[in-house]
Description:
The protein is of the alpha+beta class. It has helices at residues 19-30, 34-43, 96-108, 120-127, 158-169, 179-191, 236-241, and strands spanning 9-13, 50-55, 58-72, 75-87, 112-114, 131-142, 147-149, 152-155, 175-176, 194-200, 207-215, 218-224, 233-235, 247-253, 257-263. Strands 1, 2, 3, 4, 5, 6, 8, 9, 10, 11, 12, 14 and 15 form a 13-stranded mixed β-sheet that branches. A two-stranded parallel ribbon has the order 7-13. Helix 5 (158-169) crosses helix 6. 29% of the residues are buried.
Amino acid sequence: MNGKNEEKEKIQFAQDGMIGELKEIWKECFEDSDNYIDFYYKKRFQKENTLVYLLDDKIVSMLTMLPAQIQKEGKYQSVRYIYALGTRKAYRKRGYAKRLLEEAERKTKEPFILIPETKALFSYYRKLGFEFNFFLTKDKKRREEIIWDERVIEVAEAAQYKHIRDEKFKREGYLQWNEEAISYAIEENRFLGGEAYIIKDLKTGEKDIVFVRKQNEDIEILEISQGGNRKKSLPKELEKIYSRCKNITFYLEGEKMAFAMSKGIEIERGRGYFNLGLQ
């Protein structure tokens, strides 16, 4: 654009003085509560992981790229989880989000993983080279359908949760978070009314993890490491904690529902495992 009305466009990493504007865009795009937005920027925001699109020194679009690793051919490869990609409503359909993604790709030179905010965005990201690579199964059970067993639970600390998680889920296509990311995911879940637990079988010594969130009169099992015959069993101690809940919804590995996409890395359908992608 030329002449007096030329707009100055720039993509750069975020700065501390931009947090107020970033919160405004977050609120406009994702409609989260002010308390949640403040929580994120206090606990998880990092300038070096946040790109902004400036138009005449005004932030019109933003993107967060959180570091993670994915197991590929027996080794861990660095990837970025694209999170909180949003553009002010008045500036949409101008290609700003696409250009932020291109700049993020140029700067990191790493594969991307993201969860589209809506189903309509699946086709948008496919046009940008993303593929469906992560699937899950949603299974809702009535309280009386659950096998409540004698295992015990304790509130999880990040280091212990990560250790068990890495041991239970490691395989080709497993996305591994560092301890800082696990710690934030646990804190975020508590902020939203949930908790993370270590499950212990006192007879065998076996340990598992479970990531629980309460939604009105239901419990959501957002992550659980146990499988086999115990796939739909839970400790009685959990039943006591959530005694007023009527239903339990499990979000498990499966191939029924595509929920996350990747770019720049090949993952066999149904083999990838991605979880704890934040709210």
